[in-house]
Amino acid sequence: MNRLAFPVIAAVALSGPASSQEAVDLEIGYMPILPVSQLFVTLEEGWMDEVGITPGLVQFQNGPAMVQALMSGQLDVAYFGIGPAMVARGRGADIKVVASDIVEQISFVALPGLARYVEGDDVVAGFEAFAEAEGHPPRISTFPVGSVPDTVLQYWIREQLGADPDIIEPIYQGASQVQQSLLTGAVDGAAILEPVVSTTLARVEGAKVLASGSEMFPDQPGAVLAVREGLIADHRDTVVSLVAAHIRATELLRTDPATAAPMVGAYVGGGRLETDILEEAIKRSQDNFVADPDEIVEGTRVMRDFQSDLGTLEQEVDLEALFDLTIYDDAAGR
What we know:
Blueprint: H1 5-14, E1 24-30, H2 37-45, H3 47-50, E2 53-59, H4 63-71, E3 77-81, H5 82-90, E4 95-100, E5 107-110, H6 112-115, H7 123-134, E6 139-142, H8 148-160, E7 169-172, H9 175-184, E8 189-192, H10 196-203, E9 208-211, H11 213-216, E10 223-228, H12 229-234, H13 236-255, H14 257-265, H15 275-285, H16 297-310, H17 319-322, H18 325-332
Parallel strand pairs: 1-2, 1-3, 6-7, 6-8
Antiparallel strand pairs: 3-10, 4-10, 5-8, 5-9
């Protein structure tokens, strides 16, 4: 059975009128990136209003900043990467991952100056040829250390390619800075998510995707929906309804990118990104939008162990404590 097909029916039933739900004000942290598109669809469709949620939106440019906000008690809900979620939980934040947003979200896009050195699948030889010709390793933009994009990049280099990590020079930036660096040629490529990939391919002639998400880190977990344990304890029905709306949004993203694109565009790219580029970005990602958190538990285990080996995840993280799968089960009616 398609695990996403059935929950949509349950989600519709659970997303009743506001009068049937307790009114709750929530501080919601997010990054203006495509992998958390379920939030944008839910907001634009009015589904939070339907279940009595008044959202107070707090925008961040990277996951580590959201970790700090969670540690200070600023947020009730967070839409961010599984990497920062593990860091936050490991540092004592009382959060639970209650839904997945997306899997295999990170791709490697090379600008033409780097892409022309890579022939076929021999990426390592291409990077080495670039370094010899240009006098420096390829400069690769990605999110800060410990983020999902950085972790996927390191996994790809070390585990998939079997190369020395010094074969590249990572440049750590926020989402808008990564896009600007690619469009201005300040870097040679990026391990990054949509819509940066589609925007770069559309605007930079000769840019090329050298590796997809499944090639860089198979079954990689990506962005997630996390909530405070206290919110679950005090307003569990509201959290279940939020996840039910999340499931509905996931199905819309998977089946109707054209309808979803303007909703996502209201929040991604400063509201200035062309709708056709956003639609293409959603199409590239539509099979990767996955709401069921059970689908990412094993991938999270692999990522946790790899980050521990790298030293970017210093704290022990109990995955059973990190995930609450019962919320999704109730939202999906199973």
